[in-house]
Amino acid sequence: MKGGSSGRVVGFLAEHKQRLRDLAAVIAVALILSLPRSRQRSLALTLFAAQLALNFAWSPVFFGMGLIDWALLIILAMNVLVTAAIIAFWPLNRVAALLLVPYLAWLCLATVLNFETGKLNPGADRAPLPWRAGGAAGLARVAFCAHDGDCPRPRDRARRRTPSPCRGPRR
Predict the structure, then answer these.
(1) How far apart (Å, rounded) are the C-alpha atoms in residues 143 and 134?
(2) Which of 46, 49, 65, 70 registers the highest number of CB atoms within 10 A of its CB?
(3) Angle formed at CA 85 by CA 83 and CA 89, multiple of 5 degrees
(4) Can you name the residues that pair with 170 across neighbouring β-strands?
(5) Residue 94 and residue 100: Cα distance in Å, rounded?
(6) Sign of the C-alpha dihedral computed for residues 12, 32, 86 and 112 taken in this order
């Protein structure tokens, strides 16, 4: 029998990696919840709850609304919050902190995928952020233009590759 039991274990892990990652995060939170109330415990749980709220928001923003750039900002914030949660969990329970590391690794991969999706599909974002419209100069024109209603959208300027016709006074 090729692979033996180790092959079955690897197959099981590959097939159920998302469930195992989620289970590890739940166990980490359960370990922290089992501790006596303290300021550090409250901070750790607040950080975890904040990233969880962003996690729930990411899928509708990315898939439902097609806002790739906004989804990237959300997932970057999630990376920061999970890293902060790991740091906050560490003095309370090192096992709980280490159980969040696979989740952070997955978030890093998902962040790269989100970024690359936006980079490889420039017209796919339904509402790109201003930095996509000509770098800092495009951002300045969008942010400080006095003719808000008359200026073409940054997305249209980027598609035509022409500068904004608005040269009005800056705010």
Answers:
(1) 13
(2) 70
(3) 120
(4) 145
(5) 10
(6) positive
pLDDT at 110 over 90: yes
Instruction: Locate 134 and state its tokens.
Output: 């000509």
Residues 76-88 have pLDDT tens digits of: 999 999 999 999 9
Amino acid at 150: D
With CA atoms as reference, report the closest residue to 44 among 96, 101, 107, 104. 96
